Amino acid sequence: MSEVQDSLEIKFRLIDGSDIGPKSFPAAASVATLKESIISQWPKEKANAPRTVKDVKIISAGKILENNKTVGECRSGLCDVPGGITTMHVVVSQLPQEKEKKATDSVKQKKCMCVIL
């Protein structure tokens, strides 16, 4: 029974509804460790892959989890169902440079040019 309390089965739900996991994490694992796991397991065919831990936000029980917290500390709001799997939502932040580039590209696409010869 103590083995169940010392670890948690977690799957990560991506924005498109697909999942990464489930995978077992010890209660002492940090949220940053969860994020590193997400980055390493990110499906290669999906766009918007996170590059660093800072690009990833994990939401559990309606709260954004902080990197310095452990799974055990974040567990209080979670349902502890023996043998159950906890689903955490993953949000990937776009880099400011990418946002500016997309905005610039969309402005360029909307311009119309005429050339009279």
Task: Describe the structure in your own words.
With 117 residues, this protein is an alpha+beta fold. The protein has one domain: Ubiquitin-like (UB roll). It is built from 4 helices and 5 strands; from the N terminus they run H-E-E-H-E-E-H-E-H. The protein has helices at residues 2-5, 31-41, 71-74, 96-110; strands at 7-13, 19-26, 56-60, 63-64, 85-92. A 5-stranded mixed β-sheet has the order 2-1-5-3-4. A hairpin with a 5-residue loop joins strand 1 (7-13) and strand 2 (19-26). The longest helix has 15 residues, at 96-110. The radius of gyration is 19 Å and the shape is elongated. The chain starts with a helix and ends in a 7-residue tail after the last helix.
Secondary-structure topology with pairs:
Elements: H1 2-5, E1 7-13, E2 19-26, H2 31-41, E3 56-60, E4 63-64, H3 71-74, E5 85-92, H4 96-110
Parallel strand pairs: 1-5
Antiparallel strand pairs: 1-2, 3-4, 3-5
Which features does this protein show?
117 residues, Ubiquitin-like (UB roll), cell membrane
- SSE run: HEEHEEHEH
Question: How many beta-strand runs?
Answer: 5
Report strand order across the widest sheet.
2-1-5-3-4
Please state the structural category: alpha+beta
